[in-house]
Amino acid sequence: MARGYLNHPELTAEKFIEVEIFGQRQRTYKTGDRARWLPDGNLEFLGRIDGQVKLRGFRIELGEIEATLSQHQAIKDVVVVLHEREENKMLAAYLTLQQQAIESTILRDFLKTRLPDYMIPASFTVLEKLPLTPNGKIDHKALPEPDVSKNKKSIALRTPSEILLATLLAMVLKIDVDSSNAHFFELGGHSLLATKLVLRIRDSFAVDVPLRILFEYPVLSDMAVWLDQQQPGSYLPPIVPQPEDQPRLMSYHQERILFLDQLEGPAATYNTPATLKLTGKLDFPALKQTFILLIERHQSLRLAFDLVNNKPRLREIPVYNPITEIDLSPLPKEQQQTEIEHLVQSHAGKPFVLSRGQLIQLQLLRLSDQENLLLVNMHHIIADGWSLGVLIREWMQIYSSLRQGDIPKLTPLPLQYTDFVAWQRNCVQNNLLQQQQEYWSKQLNGAPTFLRLSTDFPRPEVPSHHGSHLKYYISPELTRQIKEFNKKQGCTLFMTLLAIFNVLLHHYSDQDDILVGCPIANRKNRQTEDIFGLFVNILLFRTQIKEQNTFVDLIKQVRQTAIGAYAHQDLPFELLLQQLNHEQSPSHNPLFQVMFVLQNNEVPELKLPSLEIQTIEQTSSRAKFDLTLYVTEIDDYLELNWNYATDLFQAERIQNMAEHFATLLQSLTQQPKTDIYRLSL
Questions:
Q1: Domains identified in the chain and CATH numbers
Q2: What percentage of the chain has pLDDT greater than the value 70?
Q3: Where would I find the H helices in 113-219?
Q4: Does the predicted TM-score (pTM) go above 0.85?
Q5: What tens digit of pLDDT does each residue of 309-344 get?
Q6: What is the DSSP letter of 527?
Q7: Which of 133, 205, 274, 493 is deepest in the core (most CB within 10 A)?
Q8: How far apart, in whole angstroms, are the C-alpha atoms of residue 406 and residue 403?
Q9: How many angstroms separate the CA atoms of 503 and 516, rounded?
Q10: Residue 430 CA to chain centroid, in angstroms?
Q11: Strands 513-520 and 537-544
């Protein structure tokens, strides 16, 4: 075997590794090929690992796109790559042609009949010939920047609104935009970038743009016309830094979590643990310094929470070292595995002391020179799902700089989390959320606040929050049919799945009026995009099922409910609870007991120099609500994760619910105009 890569020690450490083969540690070279054992003992070659990419949650075989494009009679040679520019990723196709020219729209239409939307390249660049290396392979480094302007006949920008909008598009997509017929989604836009774009439009045009408008007017010129027809509106004031002499306060959400923590006593209900397997050369001092710098940068990681004379008190604590190290490498394999299982469970289930602070804790388990496990745990009171993306991006940037001996250069944060809290409380005190309060009062007037689901056990007076999980998968074929249905109805995956979930709850509770809680990122203000903290809010979705409602009727209702809820998302759930003066019971969550979560936060893939990183799945043994359905898009199928309270349900009932949910989805795609009351599970 070769000794390694000349003058590239990091590449050598990544590709030349020691693994256990037939009971012995052997030095091995990772070729980058994908293969599988066949029953007859042969090894079948399946392609290259570097030919598979991940884009917006989908795993994509680039070779499949290339093979499909090659079937078009105009194409001579083709290569497809994942083009990355800062945080924006897009598929880019490079072609040589049998004929002189071809419109990209023709190629795009050709692919749409053969491939799913997420596999359609955002750009098509025609070259005289593809660049090759001396040994005849495609030279990816020599491929030019994809020129999206060549994809359509460019129309010059004509109005001041088009020019300004083109500038904002360029900022978000990280490409040059100089055509009035530029199409946001064809240029690589997606839902997360759409959120960023509407924030910038609001700042520049003083016009509030609901996210749905961007889907209705994705072409730059059409959006500019729509903007010109709007009147500048009145908005909530901008977030500004708090004066130094002002006290730092908790958010309404944090106060509620603190109250529940005091009520329940030491527990892991709000822990958010993760386990990462790190294979390769780990620089432990750089890892330790990375997290110390992150804690120094983000105020939320330095907060402690307490009650003093029954009043919430927030303190900032000094920067601390959150990581400890345990060396398990001397232990025999079997004993090592037993100790790992104990330490992982112990770390995930250890309650945080909110009054002490230090609410992010890491533990590194050394297994060998090339293998480590990193246990990460945070308390929910300081972080939400969006914050995880902030943490990973900055973790990669800081660690990579430290490994190279450089000083990390991060853009200074203009705001901290408590600046947002002060802004939110100011909006409440000055009645700036009055209109939103009136909306929710009207929306929830007369709504039932308890869902009588059929349970296996009587409801305890005080829940233990013990829980379990059940996973269920929706096939690629059914997932594809659901997405096709969404396109025809002009609705999102969230709206469709929430509607079907309500039909399921209707069958299991015999109630026609149902409240379900759904989390929302609550980062409407562009200033909050890079802040680590607990911004997430809970929106209540009320669905009223009536006789002779069809699937289509119900989804239209949920669509309208969602649009209204998104437009009134600033009112904290805790204030809504106070406003409705709802009588609370210790036996169940107030207002709603069932949660629906579509997990579509774009968390960047963690990549660190000289390390291969694998997330080890952990299932929580806690349940905050009676029932929570988490839905995740994975490649071309849906993963349903049913989290349920074991105080109330047995696994068999949840398995039945999952199967019935799949049956309803099948009925939706086959008979969308069927009366819901006539459906059989």
A1: 9-49 (no CATH), 50-135 (3.30.300.30), 160-228 (1.10.1200.10), 252-403 (3.30.559.10), 432-678 (3.30.559.30)
A2: 95
A3: 160-173, 191-205, 211-216
A4: no
A5: 888 999 999 999 999 999 999 999 889 999 999 999
A6: G
A7: 205
A8: 7
A9: 12
A10: 33
A11: antiparallel
